[in-house]
Write a structure and sequence with these properties.
The complex is a heterodimer of chains A (286) and B (280).
Chain A: H1 11-15, E1 30-41, E2 44-55, E3 59-63, H2 70-74, E4 87-95, E5 98-99, H3 107-113, E6 114-117, H4 128-138, H5 145-155, H6 159-162, H7 175-187, E7 193-197, H8 205-218, E8 223-227, H9 231-237, E9 240-247, E10 256-264, H10 265-270, H11 275-281
Parallel strand pairs in A: 2-10, 3-8, 3-9, 6-7, 7-8
Antiparallel strand pairs in A: 1-2, 1-4, 4-5, 9-10
Helix pairs in contact in A: 4-5, 4-7, 5-7, 7-8
Chain B: H1 3-37, H2 43-47, H3 60-91, H4 97-109, H5 114-128, H6 135-159, H7 163-170, H8 176-203, H9 208-212, H10 232-241, H11 245-275
Helix pairs in contact in B: 1-11, 3-6, 3-8, 3-10, 5-6, 6-8, 7-8, 8-11, 10-11
């Protein structure tokens, strides 16, 4: 049930990512520290006993078949599950040592620091400009709004496609452009972390590869957590990968998700420690 | 022909017959009204107050009062109705008994006959808080009549905004009120406007509650909000009761005016719905 993450903070091992050791402080500090986290919806257990550490400026991928709780888990990291009636979260999730579910923590503030991009692109039914401006406006970051919007759209690799039509309705963009707009929107409020819940699953292959390129770019400045059902995608973009799976307890309890194994992506896909991970990544089980 | 085909043909004929009955009744009414009313439909109707002489009589006070009432009803029912809908859709926790109680009650209130609101209005608005038999009281009572419908249509409009929009707002660190006021409500305004206008256009044809609170049958001056009043349906009712053929013609002409007002409002509603329809 529990899984022990090998610390990636080791220069020799960092070398395996194909980077110089003088690279950066990548992975040098822990952003999320989750222990024994369980989630249930209206009394029905969905996810049990997750232990994981997410490292700064890494891309961390959650993989697994549907129903394994990976989306449920990512939504615990910015308290989006608070919005689901009947959701109960137990255990602890620390963000830079701060308990996200502590009594004094304001979920609104949590979500400002930890942005999210959803499975289906969900631009607001407004202009491209207004989509990006919404976050800064509600957070009263009104200084230099135009520059902030341009910067965000450039970071999301969308600026050149939309700079001449910022006033157009965002719903007129293609699916891939809409998703990059949602990424720009998230970046505009300067979060530290961006959570991505299957960000490319509704997109065509070309748009998908643009999103993946973008993730590579973004990890210089942001810590990224991505849920994906696509193993190749995890292998392409992630530094660390966590495999979630569904278990059916023998005592007759309800089916729920667990974290099976968490390790460097290269190890997860070539030499996993757990048989279940090996079966999954080699396509022998769902 | 096989039996199956005969059955299919018969069923189709039945449906066309049903359609013909309802359409026929409507056309008959309209044609009758227009034939009778068109000769009396002139500027006099809009400029003159009622009179005991049909040739002199107009419906100016009634038409004005109906327009005033329409504005009052919108002013009162929109803020209250939309706020109630926002509470029920966005804040209320459905598992609480009082929220379910509220919901069932609003559904039921929408089905209560308008005259019951008239009785209520007479007791509580006209006499209870002492507003008196004035135009404001008429506006308040018709507000009660349309409120359940406004609430229900506003809820539907809010519900039509997908949750992904709310999540998108929350994920940027917006508060619940910011998400509602800046994303959900603006996105649902066309739906709210459409539903409210349709509710209002029905209410403007209501006669019973206004008669009950004492809308006058003879008002010879332009209405004021705190003065005695009549309304177009009340004026029609008054004229229809008079035996003189001239008044019958005036009643038909006033019906055409009321129809035009209601059709005009419905046209605005349909325009809003098609113009601002959101494809998510």
């Amino acid at each position: 049930m529990t899984s022990i993450a090998t610390s990636p903070i080791d220069n020799n091992e960092l070398g395996e990512f194909g980077r110089s050791s003088a690279d950066d402080g990548r992975g040098s500090s822990v952003v999320f520290e989750v222990s024994n986290l369980s989630v249930s919806y209206s009394g029905k257990l969905a996810l049990q006993g997750v232990e994981i550490e997410v490292y700064k400026n890494f891309v961390t991928a959650f993989i697994g078949s549907s129903g394994c709780g990976k989306s449920t888990f990512i939504r615990c990291l910015n308290r989006m599950n608070d919005l689901v009636p009947g959701a109960v979260i137990e255990g602890t999730a620390r963000y830079h040592g701060l308990d996200l579910y502590g009594p004094d923590v304001d979920p609104v503030e949590v979500r400002r620091r930890i942005g999210m991009v959803f499975q289906k692109p969900n631009p607001f039914p407004k202009s491209i400009y207004e989509n990006v401006a919404f976050g800064p406006r509600v957070l009263r970051m009104k200084e230099g709004l135009d520059e902030r919007i341009e910067r965000s759209l450039r970071s999301a690799a969308l600026w050149d496609e939309v700079k001449d039509r910022l006033g157009d309705n965002a719903l007129g963009l293609s699916g891939g452009q809409q998703q990059r707009l949602c990424i720009a929107r998230a970046i505009a409020v300067e979060p530290e972390v961006i959570l991505m819940d299957e960000p490319a699953s509704a997109l065509d292959p070309i748009s998908t590869s643009r999103i993946e390129d973008l993730i590579h770019e973004l990890k210089r400045d942001y810590t990224i957590v991505i849920v994906t059902h696509n193993m190749q995608q995890a292998a392409r973009v992630a530094d660390m990968t966590a495999y979630f799976s569904v278990v059916t307890p023998e005592d007759g309890g309800s089916r729920h998700g667990v974290l099976v194994e968490y390790d460097r992506t290269a190890k997860m896909f070539t030499n996993p420690s757990d048989k279940r991970t090996e079966d999954y990544v080699s396509g022998r089980s769902a | 022909m096989t039996v199956r085909r005969v059955r299919a043909w018969m069923f189709q004929a039945l449906m066309i017959l049903s359609l013909a009955i309802s359409m026929g009744a409507l056309v008959w009414l309209l044609v009758g009204t227009f034939v009778k009313g068109l000769p009396a439909l002139d500027m006099k109707l809009f400029t003159n107050p009622p009179s005991s002489v049909p040739e002199e009589a107009g419906a100016r006070p009634a038409i004005l009062a109906t327009l005033y009432i329409a504005v009052l009803v919108l002013l009162f029912s929109l803020p209250i109705g939309v706020a109630t809908a926002i509470y029920l859709e966005e804040y209320a926790r459905k598992e609480r008994w009082y929220n379910r109680f509220l919901e069932v009650n609003i559904q039921n209130l929408a089905a209560v006959p308008a005259i019951v609101y008239g009785i209520l209005g007479l007791a509580f608005i006209v006499r209870g808080i002492g507003v008196g038999r004035v135009l404001l009281a008429g506006g308040l009572i018709l507000t009660l009549v349309v409120l359940p419908t406004v609430i229900i249509s506003a809820r539907e409009a809010l519900r039509a905004v997908p949750d992904s929009i709310r999540e998108g707002g929350y994920a940027l660190g917006a508060t619940r009120w910011q998400v509602i006021s800046r994303q959900v409500l603006p996105a649902s305004i066309p739906g709210i406007a459409t539903g409210s206008i349709l509710a209002l256009s029905r209410a403007l044809g209501e006669t019973a509650p206004l008669l009950l609170i004492g809308a006058l049958t003879y008002v010879a001056f332009d209405p004021t909000i705190l003065g005695p009043f009549t309304a177009l349906p009340v004026q029609i009712y008054t004229w229809v009761k008079l035996p003189d053929a001239g008044f019958q013609q005036l009643a038909a002409a006033a019906i055409i005016v009321l129809l035009a007002i209601v059709l005009g409002m419905n046209a605005v509603a349909i325009f809003l719905r098609s113009r601002f329809r959101q494809k998510w």
